[in-house]
Give the backbone structure.
Amino acid sequence: MTIPGGPTGYIRRRLNTPSLRSPMMKPLSFLACALVINLSAVAQQDPRPCGSDELDRLVRFHHNDPEALEGIAQAHADLEAFTNQWMEENTGAERVDVTIPVVFHIIHNNGQENISDEQVYDAIRVLNDDYNRLNADWDNVRPEFLGIVADVGITFALARKDPSGNCTKGITRTLSTLTYDGTQTMKDLIQWPRNKYLNVWVAASADGAAGYTYRPGAVTNWAEADGIVLLHNYTGSIGTSSVSHSRTLTHEVGHWINLKHCWGDSNDPGLDENCNQDDNVSDTPNTKGWTSCFLAGASCSSTIDNVENYMEYSYCSKMFTEGQKTRMLAALNSGTSQRNQLWTANNLTATGVNNAPVLCAAEFSSDATLICAGSTVTFTDESFHGVTSRNWSFAGGEPATSSEEQPTITYTQPGTYSVQLTVSDGSTTLSTTQNLAITVLANPGDQVPMSEGFESLSALNGPEWYTVNGGGGNTWGVTTSAAYTGSKSARILNSTAMIGKVDELLSRSYDMSGATAITVSFRHAFARRSSANDDALSIYVSNDCGNVWSLRKILRATTTLVTGGTVTGSFVPTSSQWGYTELTNIGPANHVSDFRFKFVFESDGGNNLYLDDININGMPVGVEELAASASGLSLLPNPTTGATQLAFELDRAAHVRVEVLDALGRTVQRSDLGLRPAGGQRAERWMPQPSPQAPTWCAL
């Protein structure tokens, strides 16, 4: 079966039109890369250039080997010969619509690049509109080109079965800091077979471009390089993207189905030397290329250029030509890079796009999982396929039930709550429950001062601390291997396998509404494995329970993070290998009832990191009762720069632990006095280690 070309006569008539030109042969290109294709004719917004020389992107495969480069050139030549022959044989044949299964791989680090399903659906909508002449603006093109605006007849459908035959919605999500990389290394994280799916990767970086891909001839022997990479904010027209960025995927798919830029091979439009190139399409005028929507533009001796073409950089693209349509259909009939296998009936069945939607999974997501009391959470039903009704149940939430697709729920009381969703397509009913879906912190939060030595903890999974394992490897945990005081600390086991991974240690909420000046201090220990390591520990604060975070300090391995030198084995600090850090740049905007802070560690393959003796202060300093059962508390002398003695009364026997803090809230001494009987108590004198930061200290 073949895909026929366009209407009889169009190509020949256009060849005889003086304003257009016959095909001109020009050097082979090796792949193509996209700039922003902007729908409007106004000034371009946030333009992104194409990547640099595209052949450089394939260097990891061809290694500049002459034989490999010759193979690429030969693949292009063979596809060009097939295209010319196919076009001759199929001009005027009956139209056959084509469907291409697509999978979107969302590579994210829990940032904006983790776009919604709805944004992906919108990207598919824009793509299908543009390839089936359903875009509302197609008939606004210059009248000289109105007669050759092509209805290409290609439909793109999200896969409903994955490579193993399991149910899918055609969207995968992979948590990785490689989202900021955008190169082949990122693509290597996940790819479905290219002879069954068009792979589209969405990320925070597209290797410096808005998007890029390779033409079929460039990747015949490198299936792992085949597919399209897009910036998240150039995907679809909603969410993090916009209408002005929405045609980037249309442009990239054109390259993926063997279209060049209208000016030819290069990524540099507007150059006079582009007149010596060609796109091998008969009805696109020879042009130097456009980066603005100058509709009267004419170059290279053409009467008028096709400025509004999807393969231009004009930011007002609206059309493919009939010649471009025929060239794309030829590529889809070619075995080059297995394009002809994608749209076969067998593959459409294997990928599920030919099948009626069947409910096969109940899923949901939320815009937050850790909030403070009084905050709201918006849930989204992501079940698939063909949901006609749904019922939600929200333990601890208001309202407690909902039938909406995207309900917003308020949580007023601290705790950890489950969420249940039941969906139906009219014949099948499925349910899913997340038992630890929402954690609600107190508001107002805990009282300060706070001192954390991890002595009473065995894990960091709440309610004292919370962790985010950003790379799927090691993350924050409690260890007895080392401590600045006591016997425990928090630690990340770090290694070269952790490079690029980001892990967070988040506090609970604290009531700082009565603070005068907030101070956060801590001890840390870290060693490199080599002098090249540049691991980083960042400290953030939030004045809205973690909705928005503000950076306050970065300790880098190249500056202030290292305390233990270079250690090739597993680093365990000695008592002298601990550093001290104090944050005082936490302004009055943070004097709130739901203050939080977090440590964020980004690995560069260095050694282990330890934290201990984390303190928060900010309230007026004075002597306070240590426990509800204690009274008559006195500390003499107080304040002091030397030794002091503690006296107090117990109304009942109790286990007593004493902590001595300096004026900034830092722990300078801890003592476990053990089980004490009721009655008057007098504790031994303490002589804490002198502190150059605050030589005067007092007890709290």
